[in-house]
Design goal:
two-stranded antiparallel sheet; mainly alpha; 2 strands; 1% strand
Length: 351
């Protein structure tokens, strides 16, 4: 029996004499439930981790009261948030106001379909042959939800935040995609598993053949564009509390606000997972001699390092101005990303 979700369900269905044509639908439902549970668990402790890291960097204690070392603090906060009254403003456009948080959260959930957590198809829900194209398409959807939230709230601060979000996300989508293109060129495939497999082996028997070796500039472009795309400091101008109260989600409370919150922290892991896949060898070990460590541990460990870097940036850098953000994206990131694609093309031709 294959130790994959499909293999386990086939075995169980065989014991229970359930028709085999129900295996695939059941696999998809169970996989969706597992990913949702994983996202909720990750978000829960990313919030805790962010508070601890910010406390450490800023010489504060951080959560330390609820549960051992404050581990239950985010659970308490989540319960408090979910039991708050869910208010819809009197003058809001009701149905767009209700649907907007769902539009923002669902893409953050859908992108996990193609993330390869380990070796083989048993560790990816669906290894699409257009995986990176799928990721790019899905990551563009939350813009619609953010604009809908700002417009339907009938609040000038929310609308301003939505306008900023539209300008920021559409502008930084371009360098984000351009930063992903070189990895696809080097691997010769859009499949996420294929990109990881293309990074196998070592240089001189010592250094891993990860794409970060030739794509240092591409990785920096990706990091900056991903921070802006995910509305993270120092590019969180669409939620600038000092200017816009809370931006596009000013009028939201309860479960609807929780969905915005979930999407933001889920995107932190998503950004990290994609970076690990494209530039740092995914689930591959640093050296073949360390292959006894399970691939999923390598993948999650690399993602954790990247998440720490994002938290470090968030804890230390101030927010940039709107004009600085837009100028940097169009005048710096996009030209450099295009030059990086030309450099990668030269590498592919000479290889």
């Amino acid at each position: 029996m294959s130790l994959t979700l499909t293999g386990i369900i086939k075995l169980v269905f065989g014991w229970l004499h359930i028709p085999e044509f129900l295996v695939q639908p059941t696999v998809m439902i169970v996989a969706a439930a597992i990913i949702l549970g994983f996202i909720l668990l990750v978000v829960l402790y990313l919030v805790y981790g962010l508070r601890k890291v910010m406390g450490w960097i800023q010489a504060r204690i951080g959560p330390n009261r609820v549960g051992w070392e404050g581990l239950a603090q985010t659970i308490a906060d989540a319960l408090k948030l979910l039991t708050k009254e869910d208010i819809i403003p009197k003058n809001a456009d009701k149905w767009p106001f209700i649907i907007a948080p769902i539009i923002v959260f669902v893409p953050a959930y859908m992108v996990y379909l193609v993330i390869p957590f380990g070796k083989g198809n048993g560790w990816v829900v669906q290894d699409l042959n257009i995986g990176i194209l799928y990721v790019v398409a899905v990551l563009a959807i939350p813009t619609i939800g953010i604009i809908t939230a700002g417009w339907s709230s009938n609040n000038k601060w929310s609308l301003l935040g939505a306008f900023r979000a539209a300008a920021q996300i559409i502008s930084y989508d371009i360098p984000l995609v351009l930063a992903m293109v070189p990895a696809v060129m080097l691997a010769g495939t859009l499949s996420t598993q294929g990109i990881v497999n293309a990074q196998q082996g070592t240089w001189f028997g010592i250094f891993p053949r990860w794409f970060i070796v030739s794509q240092g500039v591409g990785f920096i472009i990706y990091l900056l564009a991903a921070l802006a795309e995910s509305n993270m400091t120092p590019f969180d101008i669409m939620e600038a509390e000092s200017e816009l109260v809370a931006g596009f989600n000013t009028e939201y409370s309860g479960m609807k606000f929780a969905l915005f919150f979930l999407a933001e922290f889920a995107s932190m892991f998503t950004v990290s997972a994609i970076a690990v896949t494209l530039f740092f060898g995914g689930w591959l070990p640093i050296h073949p001699s360390l292959s006894f460590i399970p691939p999923v541990i390598w993948f999650l460990g690399k993602a954790a390092v990247f998440i720490f870097v994002i938290m470090w940036i968030r804890s230390t850098l101030p927010r940039v101005r709107v004009d600085q953000l837009m100028s940097f994206g169009w005048k710096v990131l996009i030209p450099v990303a295009l030059l990086n694609i030309a450099w990668t093309g030269l590498l592919v031709i000479l290889a």
